[in-house]
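Final report, section 2: Outcomes. Of the targets proposed, GNAT family N-acetyltransferase is the one most frequently requested by collaborating groups, and we therefore present its record in full.
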Amino acid sequence: MRELELSDGVVTLSPLRPEDAAAHLAGEDDELVRWLSGGPSTPEGVAAYFRQCREQWEADGPLRAFGIRADEEGGNGVLAGTIDLRFGHADLAPGQVNVAYGLYPPWRGRGLATRAVLLASGYGARVGAREAVIRVEPENAASAAVARRAGFRPAGRARDGHGTLHDWYLRGLDLFRPEAAGE
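The predicted structure is given below as tokens.
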């Protein structure tokens, strides 16, 4: 698996690892189940998903799943949640990448999700995405607030392939590209 870490000094993103499974299970609550997974996780299901994530990293697949690790005092390297990027998603246009995230309860309300979205968006730009998309169910005000704080703009509503209604938030990624910073 790739050794990749993205950090802003408060949050570090690194690929999910098999040893993260227990912390993920312990951190899952009703909100994560409702907005992200659609059902409570099992140890077997999480282990299988984390294996899939590792395989996707190894194959440069369309899924890039990161652990959000809190680097603040008292939480150095602690798994605080997850964020993933999905390239080539059926509901998206070429050049777009879907961003999905979730924090475990003790880490919410600290700005970590916004930081993680910015770090992940920068990574998406570096690997070729032109625009990031966050799709949020209308009742999920906390996730919509993260999208707005991370500079995403509302872009309408649409149903996904399963019939679920989402508010779409978009952000161009040109400013995240190394050439935009003069590198």
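The domain at 6-181 is CATH 3.40.630.30 (Aminopeptidase).
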